[in-house]
Recover the amino acids of this structure.
DNA sequence: ACTGTTAAGTTATCACTGTTAAGATTAAGG
DNA sequence: CCTTAATCTTAACAGTGATAACTTAACAGT
């Protein structure tokens, strides 16, 4: 996700060729490298070999640009979750593995956490409407949980609450792992995955 | 916590009297009102009736200023938690009520969440050292949990994992509640407290 | 092949930000 | 009372997001 993008295209045209994508690549790269508050649109443009005002031909403003990165990151996260969903489909460990995938994603991309949840309205889709699927990451978790709920006779409200509790735990661990300093320290550990799994299953084991 | 601060002191002195505190008050006010990225040090200075460079006599830079706000907010949060701790001391619902206090704090002050956890190194105190008390909010929770752990024979590692799971759930719900749009919608509901309690206890009830 | 239209970039400029240096004003203490 | 240090001001710098006006290139239709 964080591969270093090329600075210039092959042709030295007045027109860039595919500036929006180049900007997004470079923007994501700088975001993951230096964090959100250090992300300068002008700097991104410069690294793409283009004038400071060029991005405004493709994005309404900086917020719009960040939102575009936001969407891309959310897509990547959702893809990883769906892959895990396929891998562990039907197995009992599915939900834990989904949570682990979620947490590991933000351990790999700590700077993406604030970007993803400080602007979009992902929370409303989670808290207020059980049927809403505006937050794709949450929807994958919901889908997995429902295959378990089938065997238990509980109310819709109770389902929603359990799902929210699960989400909160996973999301909270992701938030913790995204805090400064954690990634550098955890990525060295070889058994990080198991450590996180142990935390996510701590309630079950007691 | 968010009371509107006075713009000027009584005396029209060259020296302000207590500029650091005035700046912090105004800064916190603007933070909770407009969010972190809209927080301008110059604007804060102007509202305190002081030149743009005046804050630099008391704070090294903007980060240092934000860190000072950070500390103040963390203090307030800890105070609320300690009050809850006293109120429910010995009772079985203590931990849930602590979690509720934590979540409600960020429902009241949504913009404080990112400030509090995007810069400080609170996570290291949580994840890597069970004995560390650098994060006071976490320490209160830990203290409460230990009174429960006494009755169960479990390893230190297991204790740490359970505590991290609890922390993650509470912290994750706080993160969710801090997302844009949630506060306005939840504060209207009269039974918000019970709703959050139901989420935090969803695992126990099933 | 010419030409009008439009998309995509440039340059210049604006208001605003954090930050620093140098100087002015005041408070405090021997 | 005078020195010294703390506090605040003014002036300036570089960097930021953003907009307006202009230039270039691509492209369609006749």
């Amino acid at each position: 996700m964080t591969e270093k993008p090329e600075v210039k295209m092959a042709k030295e045209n007045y027109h860039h060729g595919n500036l929006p994508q180049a900007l997004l690549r470079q923007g994501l790269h700088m975001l993951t490298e230096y964090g959100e508050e250090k992300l300068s649109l002008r700097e991104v443009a410069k690294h793409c070999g283009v004038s400071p005002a060029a991005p405004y031909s493709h994005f309404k403003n900086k917020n719009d640009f960040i939102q575009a990165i936001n969407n891309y990151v959310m897509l990547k996260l959702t893809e990883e979750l769906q892959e895990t969903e396929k891998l562990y489909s039907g197995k009992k460990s599915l939900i834990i593995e989904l949570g682990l995938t979620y947490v590991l994603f933000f351990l790999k991309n700590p700077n993406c956490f604030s970007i993803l949840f400080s602007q979009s309205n992902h929370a409303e889709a989670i808290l207020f409407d059980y049927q809403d699927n505006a937050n794709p990451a949450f929807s994958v978790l919901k889908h997995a949980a429902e295959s378990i709920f089938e065997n238990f006779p509980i109310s819709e409200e109770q389902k929603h609450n359990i799902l929210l509790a699960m989400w909160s735990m996973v999301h909270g661990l992701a938030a913790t792992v995204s805090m400064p300093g954690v990634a550098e320290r955890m990525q060295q550990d070889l058994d990080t995955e198991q450590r996180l799994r142990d935390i996510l299953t701590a309630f079950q084991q007691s």
